[in-house]
Amino acid sequence: MPKAQETILEIDLKALTHNFKHIKSKLKENTKFLAVVKAFAYGSDAVEISKHLQNLNVDCFAVAYTHEGVALRDAGITKPILVLHPHKTNLETIINRCLEPNLYSFDILHAFLTIAKEHKQTHYPVHIKFNTGLNRLGFNTQDVKKVSQSINNTSSIKVASIFSHLAASEDINERAFTENQIEKFKIVAKNFTKEIGYKPHLHICNTSGILNFPEAHFDMVRCGIGLYGFGNSEIENKNLKPIASLKSIISQIHLLQKGETLGYNRSFTASKTIKTATIPIGHADGIGRQYGNGVGFVNINGKRASIIGNVCMDMIMVDITNIDCNEGDEVIIFDSHNTAEDLASSINSISYELITSVSRRIKRVFCR
Ligand SMILES: *Cc1c(COP(=O)(O)O)cnc(C)c1O
Question: 0.85 exceeded by the pTM?
């Protein structure tokens, strides 16, 4: 790749292929692969990522909100798309665009049944979610009978899958809790299957579930962060490649004399003569105000430069006193060596948050 000449998010589709194949190699032959492409495919570009994965023959996709699914349909994605968090106001759109809703409460189930009937649907594919301990979305496991009664009463919908979500699959200290969730899921899936009289697909694993609980892959897995190159552990990270690199350039270099201050509110004062670089990326781009004043860093010519002063909306300033560099030189905010995980950890955050925060105004550039 040529060096960056402005702030860009470079997306390596070869790395995506690598991650997809690596994770797929962990699955049994007939286990289905659902790619989670919510939040612009974790801050990259949902359309390009989904097209690439559709070409690699992924089985289906999931998004969080309905309009994310609509954007994929508009772009020509034809595989099934599960909407993880539909709202009552979107159910008509879901049907019109052949999206498949997660039905997680009686409220949303009954609302969907009404709309499906109005639209004269038969056997419309839906996904029933049970809460096994995350306590976020999902029917209570005690409501199996009541849920199945509503479903057995109608031919408008058909349960394509039964699923649940793990609370701490990446945490080895929570193994017992996760195993308990998996057991609960097995029981609820068995009872529910018996009640409805046919066998939907079962799934519970996110990326860390796939890697740490191979016995719980069931019929399908839901992989997000792993596709984007993070395995939530040092060992797993080695087998994956971060697909996104956030790059920028040095816009200007300043020499500050002892006693001079830098940036808004003069939060930084030079204690000696120092050299600073101004970089065109700021809190409007996902580098939040938690960074700055010595917290967080970028990489210039192979060296770390710490972010000093307050983060501005469109710029940060970094200390380059000991770095040999010039205006126009490339700046790496994160890439496959200087990872988003490393930078995020400087503010006690995680790769997920940093990569999904890269604002839409930053140009996406694809390496194929
Ligand atoms: C986001 C999400 C996933 C993907 O999780 P990763 O840890 O990124 O693999 C899977 N299932 C549900 C319900 C989710 O919300």
Answer: yes
**Could you tell me the maximum CA-CA distance found in the chain, to the nearest angstrom?**
78
Which one, of 341, 151, 100, 91, lies nearest residue 230 by Cα?
341
Distance CA 321, CA 298 (A): 14
313 annotated ligand-binding residue: yes
Q: In what order do the strands lie in the sheet with 363-367?
A: 252-256, 274-279, 316-319, 303-308, 297-300, 330-334, 244-249, 8-12, 363-367
364 is in an annotated binding site: no
The DSSP-derived string for 125-156 is: EEEEEEESSS-SSSEEGGGHHHHHHHHHT-SS
- Which element (helix H / strand E) includes 277? strand 274-279
Q: How many CB atoms lie within 10 A of CB 202?
A: 21
Q: Which CATH architecture has domain 244-367?
A: Beta Barrel (2.40)
Nearest CA among 242, 214, 233 for reference residue 18? 242
Q: What is the pLDDT of residue 162?
A: 98
208 alpha carbon – ligand 1 mean position (Å):
9
Domain parsing of the chain, residue ranges: 13-230, 244-367
What values do phi and psi take at 194, rounded to 5? Answer: -65, -45
CA distance 31 to 345: 34
Residues whose CB falls within 8 Å of the CB of residue 49, separated by 6 or more in sequence, listed in order: 11, 16, 35, 37, 41, 227
Whether residue 316 has its Cβ less than 6 Å from ligand 1? no
| CATH for the stretch 13-230 | 3.20.20.10
Q: What is the pLDDT of residue 2?
A: 84
Whether 224 lines ligand 1, by a CB cut-off of 6 Å, is yes
Taking a C-beta distance cutoff of 8 angstroms, is the pair 12, 241 a contact?
A: yes
Query: So which residues are the catalytic ones?
Result: 38, 264
H helix and E strand count, the chain: 12, 20
Residue that the structure tokens 């770390």 belong to? 304
> Which atom of ligand 1 lies nearest, measured to the CA of 352?
8
The model's confidence at residue 1, banded by pLDDT at 50, 70 and 90, is confident
Tens of pLDDT, residues 276-285: 999 999 999 9
